[in-house]
Amino acid sequence: MENQKLSYEQSFTKPIIKYGRITNLLAIFFSFVPSLVVLLYFGVFPGVENILSGWVLIASIYGVYAIVEPISYFPILGLPGTYMSFLAGNIGNMRVPCSAIAQEAVGVTPGTKKAELVSTIGIVGSIITNMIVVTIAAVGGAALMNAFPPIIVEAFTYVSPAIFGAIFSLYASKKFSYGAFALILVAIMLLVIKVLPTYVMIPVAVFGTVAFGFMTDGKKSSK
After folding, report:
1. Considering only 28-32, 138-142, 153-157, which range has the smallest mean pLDDT?
2. Cα–Cα distance for residue pair 133/145, rounded to 1 Å
């Protein structure tokens, strides 16, 4: 068993970390290519002050998610899935559901090496499918959306909440006490406190439910 674990780490985990770092760092570099083209080819430069102002604005809005999302999604995505998902995007509304459904369909235990492999395959399939759909949407999506009646277009705004609700139901059904605690905790923040921003509520909900799980399981195991 120890040899199998060592082989898994050597043949799968370490290469994933190596190439995952390379591809994600390359993505950061290529994100600056359009700006460099505008600067070097067209000679347009907005100024250091405008750049810093824009960066601070974006960082103040999304900076906390750089900490919260990897921690929140990692138990479902696994190590390879985390690298791929943050490179491909659409994490919450595409990668996490595909990973969770793939693990549920195969019947693996979340957090295990088997679950990590199944998650990887599910996410790879979602990325390939997503590329095909996005290509089709880029070519004819605007015309297709214009052909839909307004009520259909409006319905698309509920896609993400529906996906997250389905994932919550999937995992809450396995441990009703965890699901009930998470719902009560979020309800208190939304309906009673009301003033907490999203970037505070998400960590509180995630880590609060994790802490509740450790406490309840610890009490059961000590009996």
Report:
1. 138-142
2. 14
Element (DSSP H or E) covering residue 121: helix 113-147
pTM above 0.85, yes or no: no
Please report which confidence band the pLDDT of residue 154 belongs to, taking 50, 70 and 90 as the band edges. confident
Rounded-to-integer distance, Cα 161 and Cα 167, Å: 10
Taking phi over 0 as left and psi of -120 to 50 as alpha, with beta for the rest, 89 belongs to left
Nearest to 73 by CA among 16, 15, 123, 18: 123
Q: How many CA atoms lie within 13 A of 18 on its CB side?
A: 7
Separation of alpha carbons 98 and 107, rounded Å: 14
Instruction: Tell me the one-letter amino acid at 110.
Output: P
Residue 59 CB contacts under 8 Å (≥ 6 apart), including other chains: none
- What value does the CA radius of gyration of the chain take, rounded to a whole number of Å? 21
Residue 127: CA atoms inside 13 Å, Cβ hemisphere, count? 16
Question: What is the C-alpha to C-alpha distance for residues 177 and 169, in angstroms, rounded to an integer?
Answer: 12
- Assign 173 a pLDDT band (cuts: 50, 70, 90): confident
Structure tokens at 44: 């347009």
**CA angle 197–203–206, rounded 5-degree value:** 130
Closest CA to 83 of 14, 29, 33: 14
Cβ contacts of 173 within 8 Å, gap of 6 or more? 179
